[in-house]
Amino acid sequence: MSYEIIKKSSLENVLVSIITPVYNVVTYIDETISSVLKQTQEGIELILVDDGSTDGSYEKIVEYAEQHKNITVIRQENAGPGTARNVGLEVAKGQYVSFLDSDDVLPEKAVEFLYQAAVSENVGVVTGISVSFNSTRSWFIQGHYQRGVFKKGRKTVVKNPEMMYTLGPCNKLYRFDVVQNLRFPTEIKVGEDQPFVLEAYLASKDIYTVDEIIYNYRAREDSEDVSLSQIVKSNPYKSFSDLLRSIQLSLPLFDKYISNQVMREKTIEYYLSRMLSADLWAAFRGILLEGNASDQKKCLFRHYRTY
Length: 307
Fold this sequence. Notes:
Layout: E1 4-7, E2 16-22, H1 29-37, E3 44-50, H2 57-67, E4 71-75, H3 81-91, E5 96-99, H4 110-121, E6 125-133, E7 138-140, H5 142-146, E8 153-155, E9 172-175, H6 176-179, H7 193-204, E10 207-218, H8 231-234, H9 236-257, H10 261-290, H11 293-306
Parallel strand pairs: 2-3, 2-5, 3-4, 6-10
Antiparallel strand pairs: 1-4, 5-9, 6-7, 6-9, 8-10
Helix pairs in contact: 7-9, 9-10
């Protein structure tokens, strides 16, 4: 994928690179960028990868980059957030890497909490508490809360398979050597982040969770302003197909990183149960209730024979 570096950060001694794909988010991007600029942790570079915006978002992020030496702006043709994140990884200079979606917001001490834990605990991935918010309220993510994802301490995927309920790339800090050779699959748009995060977990071996709110997910309220997370509802068959592909890409990782057969099989069983209940069922139900006859037939017969 070709891209152009419009303006490069001149910040030296970068500790953390935050990578943000940007696509038609002019309504939200000010708040997102401001939340990074207000971080208490020093040594942060912000890499903004414009994914072919047409609403003024690109011009907005260039303005910020001209005013702040720690901002890099990159432009590419529209190819999706996975490709944009891959581009960000290619140019990141930090000892650690984090991902921030262009409509979300970081609490002021988020990076400081994550960075201090990564250094003191000497782990490859650190995560923390996430909340969702809209214009009127904020709330804990139910699936995370119910399964104990927020519980503080050192973990592994094998001992703490509940961590597979947080397979989004954001709300985490990755040590660069753990993810420097990992990339997001670009042929799918739903679930493309899950193989990346799963492999980061497995390659890191130890994960650490801090008992602090470190990420705010925006729940968009404008029905015409559809975020990627809402694609499952808008195009359930494409989502279903992408999620199956995501599973295909993820399953070999368990063989690669978990040598004990019994533990590997238990972990795979948990992963598949998670995928069915948390992701696949929503898409499958959408196909049955709202999809057209052609999609229903392909889902029930083609995928049955293939998978």
